[in-house]
CubicO group peptidase, beta-lactamase class C family (Geodermatophilus dictyosporus), 377 residues
Amino acid sequence: MPGRRSSRPATLLAACLLLAGCTGATGTTATTTATVPDRVDVERSSRDSDALLERVLADDAPGCSAAVGVDGEVVWAGARGLADLASGRPLTTSTTLDVGSVSKQFTATAVLLLEQDGVVALGDPLSRWVPDLPAWAGTVTLGHLVHQTSGIPDYLADLEAAGVLLTDRRTQQDALAAIAAHPELAAPPGARFDYSNSNYVLLAEVVAAAAGRPLAEFLADRVFGPLDLAMVLDPSGADPANADVTSARSYTRTATSVPWQPAGSRFEQVGDGSVQTTPSELVRWADVYRTGALGGPELLAAQVGDPVPVEGSTGYGAGLFVERTGPLSHAGSWAGFLSGFAVSGDRRVAVAVSCNGDQAGTDDLDRVWPALRGEWL
């Protein structure tokens, strides 16, 4: 059962600033009032990005949507492939997809907003907010959960070991029961970084208990709404029975020699994933890491400052991998959906990609994501 995986990270011509066009076969370059960094040549990079999608993605198979933002403004977006194989509906830059673990930064931000409100503290024990857990919940803090150092095993591995399929319906309570079934932690809290989806399912419960409303409602009111972001936390977006013509269906296959098979998930858990949106909205969101527009310098410092060590120069902040030199990134994989999100070291340029086909060995995200990061970042 595939999990919500962790991260895998010239000048603008005046004519392109003045035109709403600068279009390619698969993408568009938007007019922008932002002062583009000297290293970024929007016209050339847009042309090369259009050519990349045309070259590596088929127009009759699952595909990818991608976008680039500068200072929170979309300067290029492109898409190629099909959102729904059964109907032949094309994937467009306005098609929404499940972004998997890229969602974790929003859950972490919700917790940090509640801390800023004085409602919770990262030093609070988990047991204060989530009942009916083993004794170890008194030793795990909210900060351990945010930074993936709790030592709590991943509930997705537990469900997989029990033979649960992604197409089986499972609730938030089912996930909590799997977590609570562990009498001991895999490591002492704070001992080491150990990526576990359980941490963020539990944070969703913390938000619900502390705010008195579900995480989805809190994000809509305190994050998505104030920033005018077309995003929603809704696990049904990945449901294979979802018939919404504005969203994509997902697919998997084991090799290029076999047909694509419908994928998707009926899991209802939130916190570790399940945000539905487009790459264009993700790169607009990314500008909070430059401006601190959501909660000011205090929240920004909590989101990306003092990350816990992961390996080499990489650390983990609030739902994001943070490089010592400044770049941010996270990837997501869930039930046939694949996503990548990255922000440059100066926090001015952001790139996001979402795909709806997961192929064993190598997939569309592998072919598109590194190339777009190299082009723009």
